Amino acid sequence: MKPQRRRGHRENIWLALEIGNSRLHWALFTGQTLSDTWDTDPFSEYITQQLAQCQTFNDLPPEIFPPSRRRKVGEKNSPHPPIFLASVVPQQTALWETHPHVRVITLEQIPLLNMYPTLGIDRALALWGAGKTWGFPMLVIDAGTALTFTGADAKKSLVGGAILPGLGLQFSSLGEKTGQLPHLETEISSLPPRFALNTTEAIQSGIIYTLLAGIKDFVTAWEQLFPESKIVIKGGDRILLLNYLQIQFPEIAAHLIMEPNLIFWGMREIITDH
Ligand SMILES: Nc1ncnc2c1ncn2[C@@H]1O[C@H](COP(=O)(O)OP(=O)(O)OP(=O)(O)O)[C@@H](O)[C@H]1O
Ligand SMILES: CC(C)(CO)[C@@H](O)C(=O)NCCC(=O)O
Ligand SMILES: [K+]
């Protein structure tokens, strides 16, 4: 599974790909060093088939490897780097599995104890990456398509967690499943009045204040169990949520570490030698 060092080739280049429910998250590594990250839209079968034909780094389609990033990789005909894949979208995983340069990461590779078989690989990798970086016990909050809490104790044993609809899903489900409510943007430019007098602010108030209160409640409960634990927040809505937590519950926000690349740290831990 280890990326091979090749003579005459820039050392140990590998790509990490995390397939989330909204988009794909990529990272370019040279050995242990994360040199770049970017996001792309999910792929069609066509692009994945095209990818299977690629022989060198330069053949990678621009939808995957934006031209602005190519100069970092060096020589034109560098061999195709391995792509280490962690996916929580089985249909997208299926498109990649047969690709000659793709290695799919599975739960068995992650040394966390007490995992259950259907645990999301993103949750396991993020928790492992955070714990290896800041120490265990550890709680990870992923503010992604789904919002998740995932915690482990000092023995690196999964304590458990929780899954709820993320910020975007909460807005879209109200917009889609009701006759009269609009589908609002996830961006909230400022905290609305809690008791609102118009529909937009009433929706924003309901979603944001219950999310912030929910995060506070989970963090408080975790800290009662593990007072010495670090807590790290990741995911596409991490900045928005942390900003409003700072206003609403500054004592909680002060405990949170923000780190978007936890999954890549987790992959690095299990893929490369130290
Ligand atoms: N450019 C963007 N595209 C999509 N979502 C975005 C973007 N910027 C911020 N977001 C927010 O990020 C959330 C999705 O988070 P993220 O991209 O981490 O999810 P994901 O692809 O499901 O990944 P994961 O499975 O790791 O959570 C949405 O609720 C949305 O509000
Ligand atoms: C909860 C999500 C969607 C978060 O990305 C993912 O981790 C997943 O599909 N998990 C499987 C169920 C579980 O973790 O218990
Ligand atoms: K997700």
Automatic annotation (TrEMBL):
Enzyme class: transferase
InterPro entries: ATPase_NBD (IPR043129), Type_III_PanK (IPR004619)
Pfam families: Pan_kinase (PF03309)
Molecular functions per Gene Ontology: pantothenate kinase activity
Chain sites annotated for binding K(+): D142
Requisite cofactors: NH4(+); K(+)
Enzyme Commission numbers on file: 2.7.1.33
Pathway the protein contributes to: Cofactor biosynthesis; coenzyme A biosynthesis; CoA from (R)-pantothenate: step 1/5
Active site: D122
UniProt keywords, alphabetically: ATP-binding, Coenzyme A biosynthesis, Cytoplasm, Kinase, Metal-binding, Nucleotide-binding, Potassium, Transferase
Residues annotated for ATP binding in this entry: E18, I19, G20, N21, S22, R23, L24, H25, T145
SUPFAM superfamilies found in the cross-reference section: Actin-like ATPase domain (SSF53067)
Reactions catalysed, as given in the entry: (R)-pantothenate + ATP = (R)-4'-phosphopantothenate + ADP + H(+)
Cofactor: binding comment: A monovalent cation. Ammonium or potassium.
Binding positions for substrate per the UniProt entry: Y116, G120, I121, D122, R123, T199
Protein localization: Cytoplasm
Highest taxon in the source lineage: Bacteria
Function comment: Catalyzes the phosphorylation of pantothenate (Pan), the first step in CoA biosynthesis.
UniProt subunit comment: Homodimer.
Family recorded in the similarity comment: Belongs to the type III pantothenate kinase family.
Protein name as it appears in the record: Type III pantothenate kinase
Organism: Nodularia spumigena UHCC 0060
Biological classification of the source: Bacteria, Bacillati, Cyanobacteriota, Cyanophyceae, Nostocales
